[in-house]
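The freezer alarm interrupted the setup, so I double-checked each line after restarting. Inputs confirmed:
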Amino acid sequence: MTTATSAPASRPTPAGGSPAGRRRTLLQRRQARTAWLLALPFLLLFAAFTAGPVFASLLMSFTDMRSTDVRSPFAVDFAAFDNYTALFQDALFRKVAVNTAIFVLVGVPLTMVLALAAAVGLNNITRLRAFFRLGYYLPVVTSIVAVSVVWRFLLQPDTGPVNQLLGAVGIGGPDWLGDPSLALPSLIVMAAWRNLGTLMVIFLAGLQTVPRELLEAAEVDGAGRWQRFRHVTLPLLRPTLLFGAVITGIGYLQFFEEPFVMTNGGPLNATRSVSFYIYDQFSFGNYGYAAAASYVLFVAIVVLTAIQFRALRPKA
Amino acid sequence: MTTQTPLPAADDVRPEAPQDGPPGSPRRSSSRWLYLVLAVGVLAMALPFVWMVLSSVKPEAEVRSIPPTWLPETFTLENYRELFDRLRFPTYFLNSAIVAVVVTAGNLMFGSMLGYALAKLDFRGKRVVFALVLGTLMVPGMVTFVPLFVLVSNMGLTNTFPGLILPYLVGPLGVFLMRQYFLGLPDELIQAARVDGAGELRIFWSVMLPLTGPALATLGILTFLSSWNNFLWPLVVAQTEDMYTLPVALALYSVGQNATQYGLLLAGAVVVVVPVIVLFLAVQRYFVQGIAMTGIK
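Predicted 3D structure, all chains:
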């Protein structure tokens, strides 16, 4: 359905077209031809592997397609909203939806606060700034799978260095990933650790656009450090914060590797996410059902983005 | 979401901005505290990696000893030997590299082609194309992988390199980034080349594309890393060990029969992470620029 957009009218009229009604110059025609030539490979691949599947996923979610139907995807039965009703009646889906919501609602603010603190800190030093920025950014480039493997062992109750460090200051560390009430928070902290670098770089760029004159004027007016930050810097940073919240939220809504590697969704499904659920349903062969779940996730992403745009919109 | 993106690079554009006060002033001592706090933070960022490397060269018994050791008491490369001889990590490494290189090349090529057309050429349907491509910038892989798998199966491409590569060969980020960069280049260059009689394709290829070095570098690194670290799609498409990529192999070993071989898995994590860290350190300038330019990993 999307291929339609790549081919339409804008092609210059073929040789037989009436030149009388055409006001397009030779150059314009040549440009258009070149443009479509350059665009075509991208658009074909894009239609087949990105745009097409977005719509196919929606269509699929209204069918009872299973893995056995792979060879005949058009022979499946229309199931209306059956998948969606079944989804919301499944207690496990409700559980994973709540887990995912907690991951986002706790994880996004936590990551943003840490990243903002790091960015403000870096913005106030001169020496070693590049070094610190590098250090905070490092985990971002690493594979979540690899990082999850490392953290799984870091958090081992007996042999892990985290509890060893806690023990050194007299605290008996718990079984982080084995305790249903601690497992999800542990994954959230790890996600914040891995992702704060992205936001730090974005926030730092934002901080450097805050005019010094404004801060100095506020200082002259007797505003303290915190007041200047709260009433001058933060409002100016609003669009940057919004952007950071949106991209982090979109990422966290899809968390998958962390529970896959660290907890296998346990204990007692405490860390199973919507993405994990979708993957499981796909593995069981319930393609139509998995597509429905993935569309619910998609809608959640769109809604979250819209809400965040509203919440952080500059007060006009 | 992309309207927010034209942020200036986070590099030390204004190194003069913060000023340490004279010695002994309150500013000076508060800056000392700041350095201390930042240093503790950086330590917290780096320690997991340090521990990963140190543990990967310990014998299994030492990795699991209570209390745990930090520095290896016995140094061994046994874990790496097992990874490379028994677990076929060279194959996974090669698979990851092949996929990442081809995916990167495709994104650079096709992204700059469409980016140029959108930035510098007039054609009808331009706005629709741009909106369509940008509209998918935030569509997650989770939404499309089920129908994508059906498509790739019907093409007979599961468990093949084309199956791993094709869905990632083009992406909206490349178009967005390259279009932005081309927009910043002067139109006069194109006009002058036209006057000199160069064809449109030649202008793109020989005049304009060579000027986009920094953008290509940024896009190349971002794409390479996201391909190297990609997990869900290769997990779904690679069905036998000879097609696994590194993250897939590591994840499956870590939940499979090797789940309790800590040292071995940490050595595996080193193999996945260390090349990327080295690459990142070598080219981080472009990388940080790219993040500030796009805000997208």
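Quick read of the result. Residues 26-60 of chain A form the longest helix (35 residues).
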